[in-house]
UniProtKB/TrEMBL annotation, chain A:
<feature type="transmembrane region" description="Helical">
    <location>
        <begin position="79"/>
        <end position="104"/>
    </location>
</feature>
<feature type="transmembrane region" description="Helical">
    <location>
        <begin position="116"/>
        <end position="136"/>
    </location>
</feature>
<comment type="similarity">
    <text>Belongs to the binding-protein-dependent transport system permease family.</text>
</comment>
<dbReference type="Pfam" id="PF00528">
    <property type="entry name" value="BPD_transp_1"/>
</dbReference>
<feature type="transmembrane region" description="Helical">
    <location>
        <begin position="286"/>
        <end position="307"/>
    </location>
</feature>
<feature type="transmembrane region" description="Helical">
    <location>
        <begin position="12"/>
        <end position="30"/>
    </location>
</feature>
<keyword id="KW-1133">Transmembrane helix</keyword>
<keyword id="KW-0472">Membrane</keyword>
<protein>
    <submittedName>
        <fullName>Carbohydrate ABC transporter permease</fullName>
    </submittedName>
</protein>
<dbReference type="InterPro" id="IPR000515">
    <property type="entry name" value="MetI-like"/>
</dbReference>
<keyword id="KW-0813">Transport</keyword>
<dbReference type="InterPro" id="IPR051393">
    <property type="entry name" value="ABC_transporter_permease"/>
</dbReference>
<feature type="transmembrane region" description="Helical">
    <location>
        <begin position="174"/>
        <end position="191"/>
    </location>
</feature>
<keyword id="KW-0812">Transmembrane</keyword>
<feature type="domain" description="ABC transmembrane type-1">
    <location>
        <begin position="79"/>
        <end position="360"/>
    </location>
</feature>
<keyword id="KW-1003">Cell membrane</keyword>
<feature type="transmembrane region" description="Helical">
    <location>
        <begin position="233"/>
        <end position="259"/>
    </location>
</feature>
């Protein structure tokens, strides 16, 4: 078997450069970013671009600054914005994508043409999409002028420049809110485990929920992140950017759902019909449950895109509009315009943690099953 | 294997039914949705083809009475050089990515070793990271690669600076493209029966002979998917373009953002620029849409 081992060696040799590159450019650079985020590099502007800057290790001070510092309100607003953006962006793409896929699944004439129309924005860059929609959503632009086509008055909604926000909450209540939300999720987990008869899981989940609720009731109210209340909510200026993002990406969910729908064997639908299911019943009990894994998969891909989106915002409302800004854009500006590298690295690291929450469980579940019979 | 859209085998023989009310509603919804997707395109062209003084709020929706093709000439004058940068960048980076991905996919799917899947999962994570989390070290690295001209007496090796050169972007796109290209090829080769490889091994073929005689010749569809996908990604990328280049090497996405971001610009110019910048990927999509969709679905990691 000498030849075989030589071939094995070749396969390792072929993979080695890529493995090394990924090790350095992904994991090495992440480690380096985390380190940089714990220094004061760039916090003193005179040192930022010095040939040999004095850099000191300052631990988690940058993170503390981002979450509680007086000057970093912009970042906190961005964190809140990114959560709202992600929620509405995913909902919009899933809803529109599913709707289009369900229609196309009924074999309309010219299906290929319809699909081409719904998918073409996917091939554009966010910069192009942003440029187009920036023009559409100008104060006197296409969308606001649309009513005049039907003889009406132009609308005056400030699409990208609105400073109004809804669903505002005090940043000081964030620990309380987070604890409550997590506790509610845990209670749901506990109830489901109870129904499934899994006693240990029920106990653990219920205990954790109780602990969190107790903490939220007795400790959190006394916890003050900031000396004064700071309100953050869903900025209405984001609506325009969400529309543009849905315009660009809903074709993707349509393609996913369509592939899923076409993968459902005809016999299943027939069987459901034989069992007396109407059209609605069939969708509810047969088709939608089968599409659930696709929704999850789409949510994960869209979620990570949404968390790191910034070029669309950059192209639509420019880098300096605080009302529409997102952390990914702030990172770029902080690092490469203000040269505050450590603070930028901290924002980058926070983004990475957010994305990892979404991606790591997904990758783990994708490959856990496979490793067994490899 | 990646789920592919079996749409092209859709029952074409569906008999012509009389238009029932349900079908009418269906077509109405389709037309509405198509309007949502196409109206921006109409406004894009209507604006690009107007002369600057014909652009006014009240006539936003009107098709220009006199077509002004000059917008495209002016836009080309501003971003044409960047378009050429993008072409060079996208072609070189895409070809390198495809070759690397094909070899990786072959090694990972046909020469499995213990832990191959774990290694692959660790590689895949690189596809999802926000590049903001590696941007500062990447910037430092790219800046540090430079040397002054070296005089060897008989020949002089010219000096080089990676930062600001198009090669910085090529390197970056090839490296961060490894996960997706490896994924697509790995899934593609998973459908090649292992028995074929075993038979070739018994015939005395080695790693490279099997690749050259068995695997590579059947790889064309895989290459098409990867090339289309990578070309589109590299062409459309913005973050690296904005951080690792300087004026002479900026690709078109960055140039367009500068063109559109200016305050006193008449809107026909950025609109014409957007059309120019969108054209290559749009053409690829229209001509080879099926493969584009395949790459798209592969991106959602159907293992």
């Amino acid at each position: 078997m000498k030849g075989l081992s030589k071939d094995r060696l070749w396969s390792v040799a072929v993979l080695l450069p890529s493995v090394l590159l990924i090790a350095v450019f992904v994991y090495g650079f992440i480690a380096r970013s985390v380190y940089v985020s714990m220094t004061d590099w760039g916090n003193d502007p005179t040192q930022a671009l010095a040939l040999d800057p004095v850099i000191r290790f300052i631990g988690l001070a940058n993170y503390q600054d981002l979450f509680t510092g007086f000057l970093q309100g912009r970042f906190r607003q961005e964190l809140v914005s990114t959560v709202f953006f992600t929620a509405f962006f995913i909902l919009g793409c899933l809803g529109l994508g599913l709707g289009l896929a369900l229609i196309l699944d009924r074999n309309p004439r010219g299906e290929g043409l319809w699909r081409t129309i719904f998918l073409f924005p996917m091939s554009l860059s966010f910069i192009v999409t942003g440029t187009i929609w920036r023009w559409m959503l100008q104060p006197g632009g296409g969308v606001n002028q649309a009513p005049t086509l039907f003889g009406g008055q132009p609308s005056t909604f400030p699409w990208l420049s609105s400073t109004e926000a809804i669903w505002k909450f005090d940043w000081n209540k964030l620990p309380l809110l987070t604890a409550t939300v997590v506790a509610v999720v845990l209670i749901v987990v506990a109830v489901r485990a109870l129904r499934a008869g899994d006693r240990r899981r029920t106990l653990v989940a219920a205990l954790c929920a109780a602990l969190l609720l107790g903490w939220a009731l007795f400790v959190a109210p006394n916890l003050k992140l900031l000396p004064a209340p700071e309100l953050h909510g869903f900025n209405l200026a984001l609506i325009g950017i969400i529309i543009a993002a849905v315009w660009q990406m809903s074709g993707y969910t349509m393609a996913l759902y369509l592939a899923g729908l076409r993968g459902i064997p005809e016999e299943l639908r027939e069987a459901a019909k034989v069992d007396g299911a109407g059209d609605l019943g069939m969708y509810r009990h047969v088709i939608f449950p089968l599409l659930a894994p696709i929704s999850l998969s789409a949510m994960i891909v869209l979620g990570h895109i949404s968390l790191k989106i910034f070029d669309l915002v950059y192209a639509m409302s420019g880098p300096d509009n605080i009302n529409t800004s997102v952390p990914a854009l702030n990172m770029y500006l902080t690092s490469f315009r203000q040269n505050q590298f450590a603070l930028g690295a901290a924002i980058g690291t926070i983004l990475l943690v957010l994305v990892a929450f979404v991606i790591v469980p997904y990758l783990a579940s994708q490959f856990r099953g496979e490793e067994g019979h490899a | 294997m990646t789920t592919t859209l079996p749409t092209h085998t859709a029952p074409a023989a569906a008999p012509r039914k009389p238009l029932r009310p349900g079908r009418v509603v269906m077509y109405a919804l389709l037309v509405l949705a198509a309007l949502f997707f196409l109206i921006p395109v109409y406004l894009l062209f209507a604006t690009a083809l107007k002369s600057p003084d014909a652009i006014a709020e009240a006539t936003t929706w009107h098709w220009p009475s006199v077509l002004n093709w000059g917008s495209f000439r002016d836009a080309w004058a501003k971003i044409g050089g960047n378009m050429l940068n993008s072409v060079f960048l996208a072609v070189v980076a895409t070809l390198l990515s495809a070759v690397l991905g094909s070899l990786n996919g072959y090694a990972l799917s046909k020469w499995k070793f213990r832990g191959a899947n774990t290694l692959f999962a660790l590689m895949l994570f690189g596809m999802f990271i926000p590049y903001q989390a590696v941007l500062i070290p990447l910037f430092q690295f790219v800046e540090s690669v430079k040397w002054a001209p070296i005089d060897l007496g008989f020949v002089t090796i010219p000096g080089f600076q990676l930062y600001g050169s198009i090669w910085a972007l090529i390197l970056t796109h090839v490296v961060y493209g490894i996960p997706i290209t490896t994924l697509i090829f790995r899934n593609f080769y998973a459908d090649v029966p292992d028995a074929l490889i075993e038979a070739a091994t018994i015939d005395g073929a080695g790693f490279w002979q099997i690749y050259g005689k068995v695997i590579f010749p059947i790889s064309i569809p895989g290459f098409v998917v990867v090339i289309i996908w990578q070309f589109t990604q590299v062409w459309n990328e913005f973050l690296f373009a904005a951080t690792l280049t300087n004026t002479s090497s900026q690709p078109v996405t960055y140039a367009l953002s500068q063109l559109a971001g200016g305050q006193a610009v008449s809107w026909n110019l950025p609109m014409a620029g957007a059309i120019l910048a969108a054209l290559p990927t749009l053409l690829v999509y229209i001509l080879l849409g099926r493969y584009f969709v395949r790459g798209l679905l592969a991106g959602s990691v159907k293992g």
